[in-house]
Amino acid sequence: MDGAAAGGTALAARMVFSVPSIGRPAPSLDFETSVFKKEKVTLAGHDEGPAQAQNLRDSLAVAKSDIVVKLSIRNTEFVKVRHTVVYCPVWAIGLRKGSRSFDEARAAGFTEENGTLGDIWETVTGSDLLLLLISDAAQADNYEKIFSHMKPNSILGLSHGFLLGHLQSLGLDFPEDISVIAVCPKGMGPSVRRLYVQGKEINGAGINSSFAVHQDVDGRATDIALGWSVALGSPFTFATTLEQEYKSDIFGERGWFVNLLVDC
Q: Which SUPFAM superfamilies match (predicted)?
């Protein structure tokens, strides 16, 4: 789909997908909004968190959604991790109070005064979709508590498959009563945001993403994953598996890329 075929807008250029033939139309922001509008979504994030939260917020605004963005302050054991919490019809972001990230969030329009701040764990507990974007180390340290706060038939969303590898190394697996999906932008958080903004002026700008459905308990997982990717502004989204994603990512970042720097 080129810009002209999709109405000639920069936004339309970000609705291009490479997905398996599964008998459904190409996703659009209308599709994405219909996926999320009845969901309570929590996004907990580190590097990717702020970028993804802002992209999701802006995409919903373009789609003329009445969903608003809310920030949630964390007062829990996640001592060194930035958190972004998002839920519908209110999208929420949680950050460590007093941190630089907290100040940056306020500068972006998330404030206690306008009612866009709250408690992270109360939000997580009732969420239909948890986008877990905290660091690998934080996932390894906190996965048991995270799982214990997720309700049955909710969805765990990841942007890196490390947690699967960690669980496999311990002979464990994800809880059987939740779905597990991934949308993995092929760039770091600042680039995800910068190219999304650039894409408003230049057709095709944005970060491509892979998506995976690792576990689907109620048939919603694929739609949710594709809706998430649309809202991030990915020009192309291609299918993978969670295991393939984390193995290729670790090889690229820990093997090939590090060796390249050494050679340089």
A: NAD(P)-binding Rossmann-fold domains
